[in-house]
Amino acid sequence: MMDSVHSLEQEQEWEEGKVLIRRLAQTDGTLISPIDLTLDITTPLSLEKLRWLNFDLEPTKLKVTNTGETAIVSGKWNPIRPYLNRGPLDANYVFSQLHFHW
Fold first, then answer.
1. Alpha carbon distance 9, 32 (integer Å)
2. Whole-prediction pTM value?
């Protein structure tokens, strides 16, 4: 159920955006990463906003690892973990870790 009322047209537009993202994500593995995005030739998609839940809960444990090239932050929550959903996502995605490269 939606938190607020949206038109059927808006929900259809969001679903079409999700389908497009899924189609674009299906590759044979030959595409390079990271992707160089050229903003003047991009087309905006209309998607429902991503929704973060429980992101304000403090972890019971937090681990930060510095490899010299990457910083990795992971945590343990008990019993409820942060997660996100909506936007282009069809399910809840539970936070596992985040990392930064330099």
1. 35
2. 0.66
